[in-house]
């Protein structure tokens, strides 16, 4: 079994954001998508299975509301201002 560790260092998070912005894909739209997936995980703390299923209808004001895939329970998370602005630009 492979053990996966979270990124704990803010500098590593910043390096990942820079790499995703510049090098993660050939097409600009794919780079933006990859960056938003990463930022969603960092800012909202959802599991990847929940992140890839996110839709515009899940965004309600300053919150993202989903039904958690693992527990099947409703989950509501507040978006930080920087993340909300980035999401607005992406959408």
TrEMBL record:
<dbReference type="InterPro" id="IPR013762">
    <property type="entry name" value="Integrase-like_cat_sf"/>
</dbReference>
<keyword id="KW-0233">DNA recombination</keyword>
<dbReference type="GO" id="GO:0006310">
    <property type="term" value="P:DNA recombination"/>
</dbReference>
<dbReference type="InterPro" id="IPR011010">
    <property type="entry name" value="DNA_brk_join_enz"/>
</dbReference>
<dbReference type="GO" id="GO:0003677">
    <property type="term" value="F:DNA binding"/>
</dbReference>
<dbReference type="GO" id="GO:0015074">
    <property type="term" value="P:DNA integration"/>
</dbReference>
<protein>
    <submittedName>
        <fullName>Site-specific integrase</fullName>
    </submittedName>
</protein>
